[in-house]
Structure formats: structure tokens, C-alpha cells
Input
Amino acid sequence: MSQPSAAPPLTALVVENGVVAEIAAHEVALYNGPGFVWLHAEGAAQVSREDLPGYVPMMAANALLAHETRPRCDEVDDAALINLRGTAADTMQDSDGLVSIRVWVEGKRVTSVSRHRLAALAKVEAAMRAGRLTDGGDFVATLAQAISTVLDPQVAGLGDSLDDCEGMLDGGDIYALRRKIAFIRSQAIVLRRFVAPDRDALGVMAQLEFDWISKDDRMHLREAADRFARMAEELEAVRERAALLHEQLTDLRAEKVDQRSLAIAVVAFIFLPLTFITGLLGMNVGGIPFAQQAWAFWGVTAFCMVIGAAVMGWFAWRHWLED
Output
């Protein structure tokens, strides 16, 4: 489904009696069946209202080409407009890694637009080329399952990364862990922002009373919605666990600071009386006791050692050294 870069990136597939064929984008508006046709525009910035077929209402066309979208599902006469968010096929800078796909769904005709490549579309296209999609209900159900299947490992990966961080609490670099946990938490918040609306949009889609949404389609839509609900719950758990780990790291850092402060206080307390003694005996005045005795230096040294040992023994008796 590729087109020369000079032309608008619109591509179309049609399925008739299990046979799949590509048709020109301008032929979609003239197609009267009996098969199922899918028109896709990739790169909404290069597509204008004039590039979309005339059967797409103005309201739907504006929604398909909107710069910012949020997952939703609306019923419009005998058709539905559904927006979903899924994992991008390519790495995007300064992005949350999710791209939107906007779909105008009719019984025998689907028109979709995405600003960037959606990873799940490869599975939808494969199903289309295999002749497994025969109406709009099949298309949306397959798209929903594909998006949830691709996104699920990404959500699970956040939980696994957080598990690794928990295992590194005792011996890891606190500052590096804080940065990693903050990144995981921010990713969970961003994903949660769109995963929950995806669930709601699919739930609404499953409730629409269209003949082209079969019982199996509704079951697959509910299954995908349940998967999105589970991912939303897992993301919420990741966010709460990340906040708890951040608090634990803050406590660990405070404990380390307290331990180091205690060690400094112990050393200072030991040298405080020794400094007083040496300072007193080091005054340059007359009358210093034992100043003319040969043993005075070693005597003062031994006395300082006794004082230091006594202070250390007192700390040990108070169990300060164990902390």
C-alpha cells in the first residue's frame, strides 16, 4: 500500500468474493460493491479535505484531519467515527510514542487517516489482504485487537522495569534509580492518558446497533476493551508503585545522610576532648606542667589515647556505633 511521494499518501484495498485488489484512491467514491473497500491516508499533514472522498461528511472529514485528537467513538447516521491511539511504528522524537488513527466506518466502506505510521496497521493490512475483512465491523474489531496486542508488551515492560528497580533498592545507585523511576512514572502517566479513553471508545463501539457489527465483532471489541481496561489498571499500579519507590529512595537517602552525619559527629566528639587537651598544653605561656620532663610527650599521647578509647567505649555502650 505505497504511493509515490509526490502524490497524496492515499491508498485503497478492495475485497470482492475473497479476492483482494488495490484500486486508485479516486475510484473509492465511485465503488458500489459488492465487496468491502478500505481507503487509508497516512500523513494527515499532506492530505486536505479535497483529497478525501465526497461521501465523508464535513464533520467527519474535519475530525479525520484534526491536528489533535482524543480516543472517542460517535455514531453518525448509519456510520461511526472512532479515534484510537496505538504504538507508533517508528521512533519519534519529543513524542509519547503513541499515534492516533481516525476511522470513518460504514458497512462496506472504511476511511482511515493517521499522521504517522501505526504499528498495528501492518496486522490489519495482512488480514485485509488475506480476505478476512468483509465489513466495517470486522475492520474495527481487527484494528482494536491489533492495537491492544502491540501495546500490551509495552505496558508490561514498564512493570518489569519497575520490578528491576525494586530489586536494586539495596545496592543500586540511588540517584540513577530516581531518574529511571521518574521516567517510568512519566511513561505510565502518558500511556494511562490514552489507554483508558481507548477502552471507553471500544465499549461505545460495541454497543452501537449496526447490522454490519456482528456478534463475533462485538465479542472481539469487548475483548479488546477488557485488555485496554487491564492495561489501564496496570498503568495505574505502575504509577502508584513508582511514587512509593520514589518515597523509599528519598527515605534511603535521608538515612544515608543521617548515618554520615552520625559518623562525623562521633569523630568530632572523639577529637573534641583531645583538641582541648592539646590546645591547653600547647599554649605558649610559662608554667606548663611537665614541660621539662623527657616522658611528657609520650605521657600526653598515652593520656589522649585513653580518653579516645573511653569515648569510643561509651559510644559502644550506647550502641551508637551499631547504627
